[in-house]
Predict the structure.
Amino acid sequence: MPPRPTIEWQTNGVCNYDCSYCIQSRQYRQGHPSDADVDRFLSFFAALPGVWEIKMSGGEPFAFRGFMTRVIPGLAKLQHRVSVLTNFSAPLPVLRRFVDLVGDKLEVFSASLHLEYVKVGAFVAKAQTFRSWLRPETAFVVNNVLVPGTVAELAAVRAQVEAAGLKYFPQVMKTKRGVYAYDAAEAVLVKALTGERPTAREANIAPSYRGRRCWAGAAYFVVDQFGDAFRCRTAKRYGEGYLGNVLDGTFRLADRPEVCRYDICPCTVPANRGMIEGLDERHEAKPPNA
């Protein structure tokens, strides 16, 4: 698969949830860009050559007023594709308005199921209504972190989601620089949910691609609410791979892939957008703790 240019934009830090297992520290779950800065982000995106997928997350994007009043209307006018990762707490009327605003730009809508805040039945019913509003070619995915101490209950959750015709996407729980070490009993249940060797389209096991050439930094990057851009999430975690700031004119893309030197790829976006060379359908990446 050739690389599909992709940006992961953390539109804001503020979140209306406070999940006990959130990998983001509370000190980073606050704040949002000003209207003027949103306009500068949009100008930067408009000047990018070609068509990019702009995948937004937070915080919680819908918890930021400017997301619906400025970000989505602005992106809908650009040449790019739009994806969203959300905790799906926004009321249905707001989500209906979002669908109308984004139009045919929406590529992937990822709704995270946080069982500390919602009941699975209500979440699934809401998701079915929302899914019915989307075009058939738009992907709708239900993300579920495999929270330690709850894994035994998640097979039933998966069954309920899939019985409603929705895609269930399990994710192992990440820590600051690795993945959680499940005990032996839960490790068996985790593999039952993710599969023994899942592809990046089947589950997120935060594998290692160390040694493979990766187009992160050239055809993919992450940018935070302040405009600081990094080649990938792990590089940012280590304070490496800085590409400059998209708001002050210092941002520069790399012109070639680099060999990955990290032991974890915490999200599946690079793998699913063709950034990592040499991955086959049943890729050989190993979990970071293997």
Remarks:
- The longest helix spans residues 120-133.
